[in-house]
Amino acid sequence: TANSSTWKWTAADKLFLKLIKEAHARDIRIIIDGVFNHTGRDFFAFKDLRKNQARSRYKDWYVVDSFDDPATKRNEFSYKGWWGHDTLPVFAASADGKDMFAGPKEYIMQATKRWMLPDGKDPSLGIDGWRLDVADERPPKFWADWNAFVRKCNPEAYTTAEIWKDATELVKDGGFSASMNYNAFAIPVKGYL
């Protein structure tokens, strides 16, 4: 659910927390991949949206083009999928487009805290950073707020943005530690090869 107070640690979660502890004992840092741009169709919020349509409490979490009209045989439910893939519904931005919509933003902040401060206070028990998928597809204010929150959880945390074009502005404005550097390294190497 969106309510983090209902979240439980699964056996897999507990095993991952043990991995973090063992890695830290060996001076190994753990950085996980975050996809905060879109979800799968089986994600709880999108499942609720598909079922309840315009009545869903998550209807504003996603970019919905149209809801189904139950008076017709055809299903008119349509939404934006990442790069046209309807299996990956995209989270909505705020009305002005400068931030993420409040619901998924708060959910992401709570998920971030969960993995960085598993006991709610000690950053040595959590992950050490994040690699963020398609970072340039989220509004810059979201990243600035998120990176500030990450640094509040752990001032030593490392965040890197996956961006295929010049990442200078988003790294600076979003508060990232770095970018994947595809533009200055991967693309030229691919061209050379």
Q: Reading side by side through the largest sheet, how are the strands ordered?
A: 1-4-5-6
Radius of gyration: 19 Å
> Distance N terminus to C terminus?
47 Å
- Please, what is the average pLDDT? 96
Main structural class? alpha/beta
Order of helices and strands: HEHEEHEHEHEH
Description:
- By secondary structure, this protein is an alpha/beta fold.
- It has 6 helices and 6 strands, in the order H-E-H-E-E-H-E-H-E-H-E-H.
- The chain has helices at 11-25, 44-52, 102-116, 140-153, 168-174, 182-192; strands at residues 31-34, 64-66, 78-79, 129-132, 158-161, 178-179.
- The strands form 2 sheets. It has a 4-stranded parallel beta sheet with strand order 1-4-5-6, with helices on one face.
- Helix 3 packs parallel to helix 4 (140-153).
In short:
This protein has helices at residues 11-25, 44-52, 102-116, 140-153, 168-174, 182-192, and strands at residues 31-34, 64-66, 78-79, 129-132, 158-161, 178-179.
What topology emerges from the helices and strands here?
Blueprint: H1 11-25, E1 31-34, H2 44-52, E2 64-66, E3 78-79, H3 102-116, E4 129-132, H4 140-153, E5 158-161, H5 168-174, E6 178-179, H6 182-192
Parallel strand pairs: 1-4, 4-5, 5-6
Antiparallel strand pairs: 2-3
Helix pairs in contact: 3-4
Keyword list:
alpha/beta; 193 residues; single chain
